[in-house]
Amino acid sequence: MNIAVLGCSGSIGTQTLDVARHHSSQVQILALSVHHNTKKLVEAAREFSCSYVAVTDPAHSDDSVLQELPQETKLLVGPEALVTLATLPEVDCVVSAVVGFAGIESNYAAAKAGKRLAYANKESIVVGGDLIMPLLHPGQLIPVDSEHSAIFQCLQGEQKASLYRIWLTCSGGPFFGKVKQELEHVTVQDALAHPTWSMGSKITIDSATLMNKGLEVIEACHLFDVPEDKITVLIQRQSRIHSMVEFRDGSIKAQLGASDMRACIRYALSYPKRWDSPEAERIDWGSEPPITFNEPDMETFGCLKLARQASRTGRTMPCAMNAANEVANAAFRRGDCGFLDIERTCAAVMEHHTIRPVESVHQLEEVDAESRAQAREYLAGRL
């Protein structure tokens, strides 16, 4: 199977390459992209003898390290290169590991071209699910997020009419148990100290605010065609149960495993089969600590509440909320605002947003740009 990895230098991208190393007889890395990390791009292109690579930030198109690319490797430059890679005739599967809204055009194009999608770019489904999901045939999109991979696995062999509830699990992040006033002065370093998962900085901050779980609620609504009130978020501090599905007869299926994204990536690439994986992390369940459950505190972690509100509102509201969150999340990581300003920024942009039906990728790009501008104005004290 020929694979294009969009966003190969991030957490999901690098772990996808690790899966490919262990399963070289099943996987051929044909194309890779990065935004600006050209050093990692060249290293991976040389290791996997890639036919195509892309640098989406034109400011890095002349980095000297690119001269070390294999002679037979074709270099593409600019954001539009993602669409080119995602629709290459020889690509069978696109691993969508680009962070944030930036992945929407390539994901839409890949879906339209009938490519298999191993999907980790939740934001493009959150924002553009109304456009992308109708393009897909069964089994074309396999989620890579641990929770949605778990739900997908639990639903195998089941009838949709039998589904009663999705239990979407959540570690609770580094600030579980704290009250709101305790979060006013937390630092970036505090927020990046995730208790169970090793992830990129953007998603780790989203996990600390619980916005990540809110985005996953919206994503699950699209992926599994269920209303928002059929999804219950459940704190599972040990991150051993990755999610559960309850059926109308009272039975519940849960998917358990190590906190290792490579398991989800491996499943997405091997589906509907499962590969022999001696490298997989194994758990000695007899020595595991007790598994616990709690309800989320949506007053302290208001981003989850806002995301559920955006899900119920639908249309372009998730796009506006996501844009505001991306701006505020980045501002917090730079030290330009406080932790609770992320929630406040999202609330302000959502309050000012004029809701309309989702019509096109171009329209969503306009909503995204407008909402980002409003978020920056709010953070500057002008909204």
Helices and strands in order:
Blueprint: E1 2-6, H1 11-22, E2 28-34, H2 38-48, E3 52-55, E4 74-77, H3 81-86, E5 93-96, H4 104-112, E6 116-119, H5 122-132, E7 141-143, H6 146-154, E8 163-170, H7 188-191, H8 201-209, H9 211-224, E9 231-235, E10 241-247, E11 252-256, H10 261-270, H11 302-313, H12 317-334, H13 340-352, H14 361-379
Helix pairs in contact: 1-10, 4-5, 5-9, 5-12, 8-12, 9-11, 11-13, 12-13, 12-14, 13-14
Number of strands: 11
Q: Identify the overall geometry.
A: globular
**Arithmetic mean pLDDT:** 96
> Which structural class do the helices and strands define?
alpha/beta
Strand order of the largest sheet: 4-3-2-1-5-6-7
Distance between the termini: 50 Å
Give the fraction of residues assigned to helices.
40-55%
Low-confidence stretches: none
Count of helical stretches: 14
Rg over CA atoms: 20 Å
Q: Strand-residue fraction?
A: 5-15%
What does the largest sheet look like?
7 strands, parallel
H and E order: EHEHEEHEHEHEHEHHHEEEHHHHH
Tell me the count of domains.
Answer: 3
Task: Sum up the structure in keywords.
3 domains, four-stranded mixed β-sheet, 383 residues, single chain, Rna Polymerase Sigma Factor, Chain: A, alpha/beta, Rossmann fold, 41% helix
Q: What does the model show?
A:
The structure is a single chain. The chain has helices at residues 11-22, 38-48, 81-86, 104-112, 122-132, 146-154, 188-191, 201-209, 211-224, 261-270, 302-313, 317-334, 340-352, 361-379, and strands at residues 2-6, 28-34, 52-55, 74-77, 93-96, 116-119, 141-143, 163-170, 231-235, 241-247, 252-256. The longest helix has 19 residues, at 361-379. The chain folds into three domains: 2-143, NAD(P)-binding Rossmann-like Domain (Rossmann fold); 145-302, no CATH class; 315-378, RNA polymerase sigma factor, region 2, helix turn helix motif (Rna Polymerase Sigma Factor, Chain: A), CATH 1.10.1740. Strands 4-3-2-1-5-6-7 form a seven-stranded parallel beta sheet, with helices on both faces. Strands 9-8-10-11 form a four-stranded mixed beta sheet, with helices on one face. It starts with a strand and ends with a helix. Helix content is 41%, strand content 15%. Helix 1 (11-22) packs across helix 10, helix 8 (201-209) packs across helix 12 (317-334) and helix 12 (317-334) packs across helix 14 (361-379). The chain is α/β, with parallel strands linked by helices. It is globular, with a radius of gyration of 20 Å.
